[in-house]
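Recall from the previous chapter that SMILES is a line notation for molecules. Here it describes flavin-adenine dinucleotide.
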Amino acid sequence: MLRWHGREAGTGEAIVRDVDLVVLAMGFLHADHQGAADQLGLEVGATGDIQVEPEGKTGVPGVFVTGDAALGASLVVRAIQTGRQTAKAVDGFLVG
Ligand SMILES: Cc1cc2nc3c(=O)[nH]c(=O)nc-3n(C[C@H](O)[C@H](O)[C@H](O)COP(=O)(O)OP(=O)(O)OC[C@H]3O[C@@H](n4cnc5c(N)ncnc54)[C@H](O)[C@@H]3O)c2cc1C
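With both inputs in hand, we obtain:
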């Protein structure tokens, strides 16, 4: 048995309940990268993702973006996969 402290949706009124289980269903919120994107002059799409070519290249030469910042809220495996692709592209940019 757990004692759960929460708030009523809508009214915000404090509530306390004795429960057997608490399931947190928070969903995924978008990363707030507007400050960095603005400072670097990166293009941000309507969904809040930084716009990139498939290997993470942005419209600003020498600036690469990968993972959730480019994909939006996604999965660890996709962040790893795109991170590897982008690392190769960065290597190509630096080494030629
Ligand atoms: C609540 C929640 C549950 C999730 N559950 C799952 C799951 O069960 N399975 C799954 O596959 N995926 C899950 N995900 C998604 C997964 O966590 C992400 O897809 C993954 O972490 C993205 O990796 P990333 O490297 O792109 O970004 P992140 O892991 O977010 O890493 C970005 C890093 O950049 C740092 N950073 C940000 N701004 C700056 C700055 N200005 N300067 C320096 N550093 C900075 C941050 O501190 C952070 O360490 C979940 C996500 C959330 C939010």
